[in-house]
Fold Hypersensitive-induced response protein.
Amino acid sequence: MMEFVIQCNYTTGYDGVCYPMPKLDLDSTFEQKNDIAKAVEDELEKAMSLYGYEIVQTLIVDIEPDEHVKRAMNEINAAARMRAAANEKAEAEKILQIKRAEGEAESKYLAGVGIARQRQAIVDGLRDSVLAFSSNVPGTSSKDVMDMVLITQYFDTMKEIGASSKSSSVFIPHGPGAVKDIASQIREGLLQGEAASHH
């Protein structure tokens, strides 16, 4: 009798599981494990109560799909994770590019502010030099002072070019007459720029 009950229990349990399973896809089967266990419990309760047995609870410990199905599921999960990782990487790269562009814009703005202040300081320094030199050396004009300042700057530039070990070779005329020519060229450029700004 006990052997019959066990066989009946197994057959009824198997039928109870098989009854809801064909209606579900694989993902739903995993998600509804508790519902399937309840359906099996109900089926067993009906069948076994005839023999005086009470079914307290049924457990579905694991759902074991076919090996091919498992492999396919793993590939789907791996592909989904790869896609998510690619999206995250693209988003991180986008943020990095935006931050880099913002940093460059801020850097250029600050460089522009620095150059403007530097030029203002140069103009103030030149004005003070012209006024001080003209008042201390009688008979000198502002043109004479500017020529001297330009020549001084020319020599300072030549000194910096020569002192740097990593500078490229620069050929600049540097005879005594060339200094006068350079001063004239700079002065003419400034005058032309000033004339163009008034038109």
